From TrEMBL:
InterPro entries: DNA_bind_recomb_sf (IPR038109), DNA_bind_recombinase_dom (IPR011109), Resolv_N (IPR006119), Resolvase-like_N_sf (IPR036162), SSR_resolvase (IPR050639). This is Recombinase family protein. Residues 166-288 form the Recombinase domain. PANTHER family: DNA RECOMBINASE-RELATED, DNA-INVERTASE FROM LAMBDOID PROPHAGE. Pfam families: Recombinase (PF07508), Resolvase (PF00239). Residues 14-158 form the Resolvase/invertase-type recombinase catalytic domain.
Length: 520
């Protein structure tokens, strides 16, 4: 029994446990049983248990993990004194998240104990933490590569690597073949014909399907694209078609694809030559610049639900039924407890009332509000820029320290004579540090880019302030007919002068301009 741990978890201290497994197929009971053995061994007083079953630490960010998010919230309320976790990787697999958790729990003086190794989650040593982060990342990458290689082998043998079956087919697990859905494959063939013969875009094909009452897949441009660019319809399995970390973007360079003739499709819908022709058309048409589009949802991110206070979602619900169209552009509440909607036209009638009220605002108050918003935005950007600069400096210092450590170890290992057993045991640490260093460099590059973007925004504000007529331009927009303005102008006026816009289940709209404008 570890005396330091025994002192931390003595019976008068309140403890909690946390468990997580990445998929629903994995059993969290192994972690639970090990945790219970530790609790019995040390006589822990456990007051709560938190779990995230079937949640991948790679795919689901820390704040989206319900169990751990609740744990952090309760930690802030000081509802417990320590946390028991099976191992380091149950907490997270992301270096930045590890850093956040260490800092958060360290400030609260709540230790996290790893029961498998009977060790502390935060070693208190920067180098040791960096090694752990690197090992965790290495294991994650190994799992990912093993999974990809497994699917790659399957695809190279002309077999389906898994996932949802494409439109027009149902995958039969028993005989490992694709069963065709004949009525859907007729539509697939029609999609290829329309794209080829009418110079259509994906959206035009989708609109034509909806207009002609061709149902079955709620057609939109992405679904049409997923049909046209999938060689499965020509009888070929393809992997690595999509860009990394993207669900829809296709790699134009097919040298990276793995494409093999499928052993599971008996009669392809089209020939390989027809599919190659479609691919060629796609490459030619993708370079056509899209028309300038301005969102008609002027209240996007501004209109909120009066009941749950969530921002209303913007949806285009236009559907074709013969010659008549149903639905339209709407705002709707996403919450399952609300589930109501309001048409775009109804919601936008409120904008006229807002414009009328703003025209009645005292000029001094109007100009004061503009000055306040600009100063406030300038202050926020300045604060963000300073934080970014500090974070960049810290990462640069870390990299410098790790480089010095690398140089020391390499110097010791420079000759064969100096390769002692101690030196050789440092090699795994070097690998782990290299991984952590690579992740840190990537995050550093992202922060440098973000810093440049924030500095650019701040320079725009300074340029805006240097224009002596900027206040008059806002007044001109308010005095104009709002429907004559572009989306950007309408939204800039609303966000600057309107504090809140809400709608309830009965469709009643309410707005409130900022207090400093409504005071006499």
């Amino acid at each position: 029994m570890n005396p330091i741990i025994a002192e931390l978890v003595r019976s008068e201290k309140r403890g909690v446990t946390y468990g997580r497994v990445s998929t629903k197929k994995q059993d969290i009971m192994k972690q639970t049983n090990t945790l219970n053995e530790f609790v019995n061994k040390y006589g822990c007083n456990i007051v709560n248990r938190y779990e995230d079953p079937g949640v991948s630490a790679e795919k689901v960010k820390l704040e989206k993990r319900t169990g751990f998010a609740t744990l952090l919230a309760d930690a802030t309320k000081k509802q417990f004194d320590y946390v028991l976790v099976w191992d380091f990787e149950r907490v997270s697999r992301d270096q930045e998240e590890h850093e956040f958790i260490r800092k958060k729990m360290g400030n609260l003086n709540i230790p996290i104990l790893l029961i498998e190794s009977e060790d502390f989650y935060d070693t208190g040593d920067l180098m040791s933490n960096a090694v752990r982060d690197g090992i965790s990342r290495f294991r994650l990458e190994k799992i990912r590569i093993d999974t990809i290689n497994g699917k790659k082998t399957v695809a190279q043998n002309g077999m389906w690597p898994g996932g949802r079956a494409p439109y027009g087919y149902k995958y039969n697990k028993a005989n490992k073949r694709f069963n065709p859905i004949s009525e859907e494959l007729v539509i697939v063939k029609e999609i290829f014909e329309r794209y080829k013969n009418y110079g259509s875009t994906f959206k035009m094909v989708a609109d034509s399907l909806k207009k002609e009452e061709i149902v079955g897949n709620h057609w939109d441009s992405q679904k049409v694209k997923s049909v046209l660019l999938n060689p499965l319809y020509a009888g070929y399995i393809a992997m690595r078609r999509r860009k990394k970390n993207s669900r829809n973007s296709i790699q134009y360079n097919r040298d990276n694809w793995i494409m093999r003739k499928s052993l599971q499709i008996k009669d392809p819908v089209i020939s390989l030559e027809q599919w190659e022709e479609t691919w060629k058309l796609y490459l030619e048409r993708k370079d056509i610049k899209p028309r300038h589009f301005t969102t008609p949802f002027y209240l996007k991110g501004i209109l909120t639900c009066a009941h749950c206070e969530a921002n209303l979602e913007c949806k285009n619900q236009m559907t074709g039924k013969g010659k008549k169209e149903y639905g339209g552009l709407i705002y709707r509440c996403r919450s399952n407890s609300c589930m109501y909607k309001i048409s775009l036209d109804t919601a936008h009638r409120l904008i006229s009332d807002i414009w009328k009220e703003l025209r009645r605002v005292n000029v001094t108050q109007f100009l004061g509000r503009i000055s306040f918003v600009i100063t406030h935005d300038e202050g926020n950007l300045t604060f963000e820029i300073e934080n970014l600069r500090q974070s960049i400096a810290e990462k640069q210092e870390l990299l410098k320290m790790w480089d010095e450590k690398f140089d020391t170890i390499h110097q010791e290992n420079r000759t064969q004579e100096n390769r002692t057993q101690e030196n050789r045991t440092q090699e795994p640490m070097l690998i782990a540090l290299s991984i952590t260093k690579g992740v840190t460099i990537q995050k550093l590059d992202n922060e440098v880019r973000l810093l440049k973007s924030k500095v650019k925004e701040l320079n725009k504000i300074n340029d805006f302030k240097s224009d002596n007529n900027y206040s008059e331009k806002f007044m001109e927009m308010v005095n104009a007919d709002w429907e004559s303005l572009n989306s950007k102008s309408i939204r800039s006026i609303i966000t600057m002068f309107v504090e809140k816009i809400t709608v309830n289940r009965d469709g009643q709209l309410h707005y409130r301009i900022y207090k400093d404008l409504s005071e006499d």
